[in-house]
């Protein structure tokens, strides 16, 4: 069985990203970049499935500019077998990314697609669901447990009220949530080995996907800052303030 | 053209999130219809009472008892011609369903909308709320997920919408099936719509200690939330998580106990009206957003607080 893992290059989650000077976009110059944390969880899950003998091959794919190769190398160092780089200079929106991934899916024909539930930059939470819709395949989003049985995958999902379990026929699209696993770190020998693993390069233009500028970014601003409040000295003072100043309790 | 709002419910009650979504929809200034997929007529009746709604498109059938995104997307696509806006809340249900039919209709969805400026221009937080983006759509049809904490609620009582029973095609998806739910039992108010929320973090140390929050929550009729660290460590169930990748809340009062105030946590609560932080580290970043900070050991503060409320 083959598992396809689409991954995204994003800011390191420790970095607080700010608007640029002209407030037209975010300022990502000098920002440390990384594999999107949810994609790391997807890579880890795919590798564990392979290690347990339920998959033969883990293929990672990313859509983006030259620098995205860094994240593909990271994924290869973590244990992915090979990588596909769909090259483009334009930042794509989730619908476009999904259209590109449809082409990659049709070429690779994986039984399972494991991907992040959201990019921590745009916070869209769309690409997996869109890919599933376009392929007419079942989706299981926000997975905290993934179990493969013959021809099906059983997925426990983190939903607002608790947990929900679904069964889906393979091939299926599964998006990861935080509790699915704790990703490993790449070892130095594996980082060295990853340098020799293959990265297939595809030009976006060659995939015959028509992309349109559907949603434009007009401005990026900092949110209104909260005023730092006061320190209270005691529980009595806190209760008093909440009752008589903020008037939020009785 | 009209606006279609997807109704969220548990087959008994309409979710508060839907009322906020209808309110958001009203600022588009067009007629609003609702779409309900459910196993219970009850919910359809209740939906028809929501303020400002013209019609309720009702898909009632056993197959809709547990919502499968594939099936719901089919229902929406079936009626899509009459609408140019499709809205749902950015709950896990909305997040699961909206992109599925958006893709079938070839629409780029706009997620987590906090402000509708006009019919083409919207604001949404990005990068864990560190920035607010204004985006402009060039599409004729749009799909919006609504961050409900940014909008008031429509009245659940004052409406009188026409109920339209929709013909049922067999939408039950063949490729996936519901297995089971393990829902968190609680008599407390729902986290995202509660007036008061008290959340615990890693500082609570274990699941037993986490119960120290319960007494205070009962006295204040508050919902209980948690940081990611508390959920990851098994102190609290996943649906308690507040933050960038959990739930967004904006209650009148948010009490953060043993939470350091990472940007991912702040993303889900910094729009609360009044914020209280209880932390033994006076340098903790949570104090930067707190109206009232109490530096102290939570194991001493919490019992005293409970006794004085
Ligand atoms: C400040 C800002 C400005 C932007 N401006 C523009 C703009 O002007 N024009 C424009 O077209 N778009 C713009 N975008 C869109 C941006 O490129 C999207 O964030 C991106 O296309 C995908 O969104 P996401 O990761 O949030 O999707 P999600 O749906 O949250 O991603 C979920 C998962 O999809 C997969 N995935 C997502 N992207 C890729 C990828 N590239 N390769 C492989 N797998 C992937 C990953 O598995 C990921 O975990 C902007 C975004 C931001 C934050
Ligand atoms: C992709 C991604 C998504 C994330 N999404 C979220 C999210 O949605 N929500 C979220 O919350 N986090 C999220 N995080 C995690 C976030 O970065 C922080 O790690 C997390 O919020 C920390 O939780 P905490 O404040 O409980 O723990 P810590 O940062 O460990 O803080 C514990 C605090 O407790 C205090 N404390 C300890 N003992 C006591 C005591 N006896 N009395 C009083 N105070 C005490 C300490 O001083 C400290 O400030 C995400 C991270 C990533 C990478």
In helices, the fraction of residues of chain A equals 25-40%
Q: Low-confidence stretches of chain B at least 5 residues in length (pLDDT < 50)?
A: none
Helix content of chain B: 10-25%
Q: What's the CATH H-level homologous superfamily of the largest domain in chain B? A: HUPs
Rounded to the nearest angstrom, the distance between the terminal CA atoms of chain B is 52 Å
**Distance between the first and last residues' Cα of chain A:** 61 Å
CATH superfamily of chain A: HUPs
Structure description:
The complex is a heterodimer of chains A (250) and B (309). With 250 residues, chain A is an alpha/beta fold. Chain A has one domain (2-224): HUPs (Rossmann fold, 3-Layer(aba) Sandwich). Chain A is built from six helices and 15 strands. In chain A, the strands form three sheets. Chain A has a nine-stranded mixed beta sheet, sandwiched between helices. A two-stranded antiparallel sheet of chain A has the order 2-5. In chain A, α2 (69-78) packs across α5 (188-194) and α3 (94-108) packs across α4 (127-135). The longest helix of chain A has 15 residues, at 37-51. Chain B has two domains: 2-165, 3-Layer(aba) Sandwich (Rossmann fold); 191-308, Rossmann fold, CATH 3.40.50. Chain B has a seven-stranded parallel beta sheet with strand order 5-9-4-1-2-3-10, with helices on both faces. In chain B, strands 13-12-14-15-16 form a five-stranded parallel beta sheet. Chain B has a three-stranded antiparallel beta sheet with strand order 6-7-8, with no helix packed on it. In chain B, a hairpin with a 2-residue loop joins β6 (115-118) and β7 (121-126). The radius of gyration of chain B is 21 Å and the shape is globular. The mean pLDDT of chain B is 96. Chain B has nine helices and 16 strands. At the A-B interface, β3, α3, α4, β9 and β10 of A face α3, α4, β5, β7 and β8 of B. Chain A: The electron transfer flavoprotein serves as a specific electron acceptor for other dehydrogenases. It transfers the electrons to the main respiratory chain via ETF-ubiquinone oxidoreductase (ETF dehydrogenase). Chain A: Pfam families: ETF. Chain A: Its cofactor is AMP.
């Amino acid at each position: 069985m083959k598992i396809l893992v689409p991954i995204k290059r994003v800011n390191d989650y420790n970095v607080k990203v700010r608007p640029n000077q002209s407030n037209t976009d975010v300022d990502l110059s000098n920002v440390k970049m990384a594999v999107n944390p949810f994609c790391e969880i997807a890579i880890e899950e795919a590798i564990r499935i392979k290690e347990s003998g339920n998959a033969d091959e883990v293929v990672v794919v990313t859509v983006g500019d030259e620098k995205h190769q860094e994240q593909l190398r990271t994924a290869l160092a973590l244990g992915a077998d090979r990588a596909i780089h769909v090259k483009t200079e334009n930042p794509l929106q989730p619908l476009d990314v999904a259209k590109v991934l449809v082409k990659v899916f049709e070429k690779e024909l994986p039984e399972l697609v494991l991907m992040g539930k959201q990019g921590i930059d745009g916070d869209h939470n769309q690409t997996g669901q869109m890919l599933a819709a376009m392929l007419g395949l079942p989706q299981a989003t926000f997975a905290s447990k993934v179990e493969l049985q013959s021809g099906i995958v059983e997925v426990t999902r983190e939903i607002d009220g608790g947990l929900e379990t679904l069964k889906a026929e393979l091939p299926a699209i599964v998006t990861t949530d935080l509790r699915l696993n704790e990703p490993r770190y790449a070892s130095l020998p594996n980082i060295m080995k990853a340098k020799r693993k293959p990265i297939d390069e595809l030009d976006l233009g060659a995939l015959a996907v028509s992309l349109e500028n559907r949603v434009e970014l007009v401005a990026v601003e900092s949110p209104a800052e909260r005023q730092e409040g006061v320190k209270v000295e005691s529980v009595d003072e806190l209760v008093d303030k909440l009752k008589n100043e903020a008037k939020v309790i009785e | 053209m009209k606006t279609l709002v997807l109704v969220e419910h548990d087959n008994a009650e309409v979710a508060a999130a839907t009322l906020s979504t209808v309110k958001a929809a009203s600022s588009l200034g067009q007629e609003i219809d609702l779409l309900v997929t459910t196993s219970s007529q009850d919910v359809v009746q209740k939906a028809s009472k929501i303020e400002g709604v013209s019609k309720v498109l009702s898909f009632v059938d056993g197959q809709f008892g547990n919502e499968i995104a594939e099936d719901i997307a089919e229902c929406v696509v079936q009626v899509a011609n009459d609408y140019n806006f499709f809205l749902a809340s950015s709950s896990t249900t909305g997040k699961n369903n909206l992109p599925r039919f958006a893709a079938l209709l070839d629409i780029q969805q706009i997620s987590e909308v906090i402000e509708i400026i006009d019919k083409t221009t919207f604001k949404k937080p990005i990068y864990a709320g560190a920035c607010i983006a204004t985006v402009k759509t060039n599409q004729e049809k749009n799909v919006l997920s609504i961050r409900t904490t940014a909008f008031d609620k429509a009245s659940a009582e004052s409406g009188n919408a026409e109920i339209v029973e929709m013909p049922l095609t067999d939408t039950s998806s063949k490729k996936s099936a519901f297995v089971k739910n393990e829902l968190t039992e609680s008599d407390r108010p729902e986290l995202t719509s509660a007036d008061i929320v008290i959340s615990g973090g890693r500082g609570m140390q274990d699941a037993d200690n986490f119960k120290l929050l319960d007494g205070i929550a009962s006295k204040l009729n508050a919902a209980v939330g948690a940081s990611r660290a508390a959920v990851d460590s098994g102190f609290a169930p996943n649906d308690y998580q507040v933050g960038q990748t959990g739930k967004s809340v904006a209650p009148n009062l948010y009490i953060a106990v043993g939470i350091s105030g990472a940007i991912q946590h702040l993303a889900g609560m910094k729009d609360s009206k009044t914020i209280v932080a209880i932390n033994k580290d006076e340098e903790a970043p949570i104090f930067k957003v707190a109206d009232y900070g109490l530096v102290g050991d939570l194991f001493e503060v919490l019992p005293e607080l409970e006794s004085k409320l």
